[in-house]
């Protein structure tokens, strides 16, 4: 037991529980829960008490920079965790549970209390505001793989040019839908000449409560002829051929081996962590949606959705995926990737899937 308790505590800094989002008119606390978790909510005066069974979290006591929530306190117990949320005067909380059958997400929205006077009228449950209704649009991080001194895969096309082009097309399409976009790079550049630092800077953009989603774009290559589209979410893999690809995307050579080893360590820890697993289900769902959309519009070979220890998405606190949109060195697919119309199709499919994912409140909460 002691060992597992230690493991929990070592893991916990990577997980925000709750994740706190400041919005115009409301403050949102999101609790990612394992499938089997249960909870009760009670409130007394200005303290909201949430008792979670089957959830282990490290103690925390955090102030919140909000005019509605003063602080929250996380208190671990024998069989669960209690969270006390201290509201500011005149604030009230509304809770809503999202459950897609694989993971649960409890959303607590703290709003300004309505004026009293109709207290006897039973209130209908108020749905959590949908992102489209928020004044703050959802924020998507687009990561065009490689760049600058790092060309990535080279074949009929050069990976860094294709990923940037598709990334910029995706940016335009998402922005047209009112989604805010942050690019890890917007031109042919590396973020650092040192690949570890470069990937670390991209990865840092998955670690923010101000962003909703991260998509990394890559182009594949293979020694044996291969073609098709595959989409990844973070996790371990046992496939030696996939590991070779992961090592290449993680910087290649000795550094790629080292970063892959580190990412696999994170994946193995996450595999023992029900909360991390619950989080990864959202990334898996996003991966599936983006993958299906791209296969649907291109008719490309379906190489599936899998988990793999890609360094750039190893610590994501938001749904994060890595797409491999085709093989640079395949005699049919390489030239297809060189065609702007084909790249536009890929970007449209990604944009459609991402906006659909974000429109579903269960996934978009932050
Ligand atoms: Zn790549």
From TrEMBL:
Enzyme class: hydrolase
Keyword field contains Cell division: no
Single annotated GO MF: N-acetylmuramoyl-L-alanine amidase activity
Residues forming coiled coils: none
GO biological process: peptidoglycan catabolic process
Record-listed E.C. numbers: 3.5.1.28
Keyword Secreted: no
Domain of life: Bacteria
Ranges for domain MurNAc-LAA: 203-355
Listed SMART domains: Ami_3
Protein name: N-acetylmuramoyl-L-alanine amidase
Origin species: Allomeiothermus silvanus (strain ATCC 700542 / DSM 9946 / NBRC 106475 / NCIMB 13440 / VI-R2)
């Amino acid at each position: 037991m002691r060992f597992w308790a230690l493991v929990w505590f070592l893991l916990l800094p990577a997980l925000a529980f709750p994740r706190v989002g400041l919005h115009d008119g409301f403050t949102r606390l999101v609790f990612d829960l394992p499938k089997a978790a249960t909870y009760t909510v009670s409130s007394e005066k200005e303290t909201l008490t949430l008792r979670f069974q089957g959830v282990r979290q490290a103690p925390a006591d955090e102030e919140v920079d909000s005019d509605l929530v003063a602080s929250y306190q996380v208190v671990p117990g024998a069989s669960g965790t209690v969270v006390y949320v201290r509201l500011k005067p005149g604030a009230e909380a509304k809770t809503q549970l999202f459950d897609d059958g694989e993971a649960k997400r409890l959303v607590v929205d703290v709003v300004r209390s309505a004026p009293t006077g109709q207290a006897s009228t039973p209130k209908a449950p108020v749905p959590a505001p949908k992102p489209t209704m928020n004044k703050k649009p959802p924020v998507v991080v687009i990561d065009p793989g490689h760049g600058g001194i790092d060309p990535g895969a080279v074949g009929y096309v050069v990976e860094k040019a294709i990923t940037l082009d598709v990334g910029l097309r995706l940016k335009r399409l998402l922005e047209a839908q009112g989604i805010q976009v942050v690019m890890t790079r917007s031109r042919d550049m590396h973020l650092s000449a040192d690949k570890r630092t470069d990937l670390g800077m991209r990865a840092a953009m998955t670690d923010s409560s101000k962003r909703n989603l991260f998509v990394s774009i890559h182009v594949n290559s293979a020694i044996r002829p291969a073609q098709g589209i595959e989409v990844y979410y973070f996790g371990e893999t046992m496939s030696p051929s996939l590991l070779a690809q992961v090592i290449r995307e993680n910087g290649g050579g000795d550094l790629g081996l080292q970063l892959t080893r580190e990412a696999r360590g994170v994946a193995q820890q996450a595999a023992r962590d029900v909360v991390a697993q619950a989080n990864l289900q959202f990334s898996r769902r996003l991966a599936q949606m983006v993958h299906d959309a791209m296969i649907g519009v291109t008719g490309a070979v379906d190489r599936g959705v899998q988990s793999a220890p890609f360094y750039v998405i190893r610590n994501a606190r938001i749904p994060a995926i890595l797409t491999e949109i085709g093989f640079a060195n395949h005699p049919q697919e390489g030239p297809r990737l060189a065609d702007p119309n084909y790249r536009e199709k890929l970007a449209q499919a990604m944009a459609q899937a991402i906006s659909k994912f974000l429109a579903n409140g269960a996934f978009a909460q932050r």
